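User: Here's a structure from my thesis project, written as structure tokens. My advisor, Dr. K., wants to see whether a designed sequence matches the one we expressed. Can you design one independently, without my sequence as a hint?
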């Protein structure tokens, strides 16, 4: 059996891909464009100034 000229399994994958892309686009527009929340992709190598380290101490200038 085929749907729109595609086998059923391929049609389901096609539909799932469109749905996932649409959900991602709706999320991006709602959260990042309308609400103005920045996309935080910064991966920290050392804690920013003023943030406590794992031991609960203030970070030193050398990051140790």
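Assistant: Designed independently from the structure alone:
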């Amino acid at each position: 059996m085929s749907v729109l000229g595609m086998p059923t399994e391929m049609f389901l994958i096609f539909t799932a891909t469109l749905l996932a892309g649409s959900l991602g686009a709706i999320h991006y527009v709602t959260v990042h464009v309308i609400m103005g929340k920045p996309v935080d992709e910064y991966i920290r190598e050392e804690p920013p100034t003023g943030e406590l380290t794992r031991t609960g101490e203030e970070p030193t200038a050398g990051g140790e």
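When you compare it with your expressed construct, this may help: Residues 8-34 form the longest helix (27 residues).
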